[in-house]
């Protein structure tokens, strides 16, 4: 009985090691970008949102600022981008509060790999 439990324990440890390795390796490919930035003006908010958008969308995505739609309110900045790759085009919206924290980021008509699709 001890031998059977020992064999099951070894199999369990191998399975656990495999799951941990897969979890660790899947997180290595994701670029981490801090949603908190130093923002004083609308231009700073645009730069911060562009860098965040570049970090969360797949590599090779083209990001163009929609300057006419972007705006500043008393509470936050709203930044809009046109995003595209070889297969699709869409829009991204980013909202930054006056303290520099990105409080909302979403894409529309643009599906991202391994991320959920969300609208405005």
Notes on the structure:
With 120 residues, the chain is an alpha+beta fold. The protein has 2 domains: 1-30; 42-108. 35% of the residues lie in helices and 26% in strands. It has 2 helices and 5 strands. The chain has helices at 2-28, 42-56, and strands at residues 62-65, 71-72, 76-84, 89-97, 102-108. Strands 1, 2, 3, 4 and 5 form a 5-stranded antiparallel β-sheet that branches. The termini are far apart. 17% of the residues are buried. Mean pLDDT is 78; it is low at 114-120.
SSE order: HHEEEEE
Poorly predicted sequence stretches spanning 5 or more consecutive residues: 114-120
Q: Structural class from helices and strands?
A: alpha+beta
Number of helices: 2
- What gyration radius follows from the Cα positions, in whole Å? 21 Å
Mean pLDDT: 78
C-alpha end-to-end distance:
60 Å
Largest sheet: 5 strands, antiparallel
Label the overall shape: elongated
How much strand? 25-35%
Would you report the number of β strands? Answer: 5
> What percent of residues adopt helix (DSSP H or I)?
25-40%
Number of domains: 2
Quick synopsis:
With 120 residues, the protein is an alpha+beta fold. It has two helices and five strands; from the N terminus they run H-H-E-E-E-E-E. It is elongated, with a radius of gyration of 21 Å.
């Amino acid at each position: 009985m001890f031998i059977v439990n020992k064999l099951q324990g070894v199999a369990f440890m191998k399975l656990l090691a495999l799951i941990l390795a897969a979890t660790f390796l899947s997180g290595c490919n994701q670029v981490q970008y801090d949603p908190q930035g130093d923002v004083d003006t609308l231009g700073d908010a645009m730069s911060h949102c562009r860098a965040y958008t570049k970090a969360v969308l797949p590599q090779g995505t083209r990001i163009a600022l929609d300057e006419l739609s972007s705006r500043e309110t008393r509470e936050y900045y709203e930044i809009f981008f046109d995003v595209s790759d070889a297969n699709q085009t869409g829009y991204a919206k980013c909202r930054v509060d006056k303290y520099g924290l990105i409080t909302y980021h979403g894409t529309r008509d643009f599906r991202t790999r391994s991320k959920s699709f969300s609208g405005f």
